[in-house]
Amino acid sequence: MDEDLLTLLTEASRKQIPKLLGNDQNVSETARNVARNARRLVSGYVWDRSPYQHDATLLEPLAWLVQQLVVRQHADGLYDVGNLHSPPDTAFVIQDVCMSYALLDADARTETTAMRAALAAVIKKAGPPLASGGVHTPNHRWEVCAALARVHELFPDPQYVARIEEWLAEGVDAYSDGIYSERSSTYAAEVTNPSLLTIARLRDKPELREYVRRNLEVTLYLLEPNGEVDTTASRRQDQKGVRDVWWYLLQFRELALHTGDGRFTSVAKSIEARGAGEPGDFLSDFLADVLERPELSAVLPAAQPAPDDFVRHLPSQASARIRRGVRTATIFGGTDFHDVPVIASGLSTNPTFFKLRNGAAILDSVRLAPQFFGTGHFRSAGLARTGPSTFKLQQEVQVPYHLPLPPSYRRTGGQYELTPDGRFYAAMEFGDRPKQYRSLRTGIRVVELADGFELTFGFDGDETAYAIELCFRPGGVLSGVEQLDAAGNYQLVSGTGSYTVGDDRIEFGPGSGPTRVTMDPGEHYTYLGGNLTPAGLRVYLTGHTPGAQVLNLRAPLTH
Questions:
Q1: Lesser CB count within 10 Å: N end or C end of the chain?
Q2: Counts of helices then strands in the chain (DSSP H, E)
Q3: Measuring CA to CA, how many Å separate 504 from each of 125, 270, 385?
């Protein structure tokens, strides 16, 4: 057994349980949180290394949580978690309930007899609607299947197996490079990977592990030196935030043990090392998994270095990752905005096309916004690899002026169908009108250099102004720039600017003059009062089209 892991999880649980007891009987918690908190208390209660093992002070809080699971369950066996009578949300609840029930049942204490009976009733009541209900997203299918696999393991019923087979018959939504269709680290780590591993184990489907292995393989190339995972290309909520690798801990452990891949060992051990050095009680969620499956705590194969010197092109999401030690870059051209010009969950709309890190100095985003009929940020229509470390992004935007309808389409009374122009709607029968177009073609060539990157912007078409936005993560010092206001906005007027955190530095330039140009997020946002202003220290460079501009980003390695 890996004693370091067991000690880490035990200590994390010890720190977390008092926080749970201090938030006892919180009726505002969702059913999913109630089930997870019960699982956390159960883990400490049954674990023979826990200072809370068989501690009577846990029984009343645990009984309250169990009772909440009983009373909140609808007559049809489902739970409300934002969504009403929701099979997928119920699946999340039931996975935790099944684990808690199994751990308490194996512990077999008389003090928990009534709680076990209540949990068993909840599980049995939820099984049939999970086997007949629907879902909303790709990952929900696998969460429901994993929940049904657990229910069937405890209380067998052929309808559960039949539904699992029905969902699996659709095929797992993974691209050849290992990325799932949602392109989301959050849902890969928290839902799809653990669910597929549960189904593989409980339904004897070892082929499902290969999807997880491939996803972990590609995740190696999305890792940042500080333990974050690049989420630029995600189609879900994490496209606009920061994601930590710790959610992947047990997946990397399981696949390291299954495949012998020492790179997976390295990632797992790095997560454990960071968890031990921080408050780290978030890792306590994994204690239940290890108690359920002690084999996950086996000593891992010998570690091998995870990749840290590469150029990785990921065509499935039109992105590239480049890493040289602690210097990493992301190039992204894979938004869905050209095919589906809508802002919605499930679509990639992130206008960030370049990111750069040099140790602790982090440039979280580079964005471009021309002033062009309210069409918003530059979003590339794909990513072309033009050399070993050279990539091309490009976009053409055409905006019509609509001409008079041909005689055959005219209507007496002047009543025409409400139709979209692309930016707005009007009763104009836009599709039947001849048009005159204004156009703007933008190309960005990204070249890796020995000490950083060169971005060359080329503009062709109508005359207009544009702004380039560099957003640095707070915590460092900007120099060589002019402060525009107290809200974190700066402009590089001339020469070279720099952003420094400790010994780590990113230099950028040259400046392009004092003209200010507003970053226009586009009518999709402004009409609803929204914006796309990223959080951080924002430096602007401006210019006019047509023409060209070069942006040099230097990141000299110091360690």
A1: C
A2: 14, 21
A3: 57, 22, 29
Alpha helices (runs of H) in 307-423, residue ranges in sequence order:
none
Strand partners of residue 438 = 399
Please give the Cα distance from 292 to 146 (Å, whole number).
15
Three-class secondary structure assignment of 217-280: HHHCCCECCCCEECCCCCCCHHHHCCEEHHHHHHHHHHHHHHHCCHHHHHHHHHHHHHHHHCCC
- Beta strands 489-491 and 537-554: pairing type? parallel
pLDDT at 277 over 70: no
Q: In this structure, are residues 64 and 25 in contact, taking their beta carbons and an 8 Å threshold?
A: yes
CA distance 326 to 332: 20
Question: Residue 344 burial by CB count (10 A; 0-12/13-18/19+): exposed, middle or buried?
Answer: exposed
In the block, residue with structure tokens 């109508």: 462
Q: Any idea which residue has 């002070």 for tokens?
A: 57
Whole-angstrom distance, CA of residue 8 vs CA of residue 284: 8
Distance CA 120, CA 143 (A): 20
CB atoms within 10 A of CB 135: 16
CA–CA separation, 31 and 522 (whole Å): 39
Q: What are 314-326's pLDDT values in tens digits?
A: 999 999 999 999 9
**5 CB contacts (<8 Å, ≥6 apart)?**
253, 272, 290, 297
The pTM for the full model equals: 0.96
What's the pLDDT score for residue 339? Answer: 87
Q: What is the pLDDT of residues 405-428, one digit of tens each?
A: 999 999 999 999 999 988 889 999
Q: pLDDT for 138-197, tens place per residue?
A: 999 999 999 999 999 999 999 999 999 999 999 999 999 999 999 999 999 999 999 999
Tell me the β-bridge partners of 490.
Answer: 483, 539
What residues have CB less than 8 Å from 371, skipping those under 6 apart? 464, 465, 466, 517, 518, 520
Are the CB atoms for 544 and 466 separated by under 8 Å?
yes
Establish whether the linkage from the previous residue to 546 is cis, with ω within 30° of 0. Answer: yes
pLDDT at 278: 61
Q: In the 8-state DSSP scheme, what is residue 337?
A: T
Cα separation, 162 vs 159, in Å, equals: 5
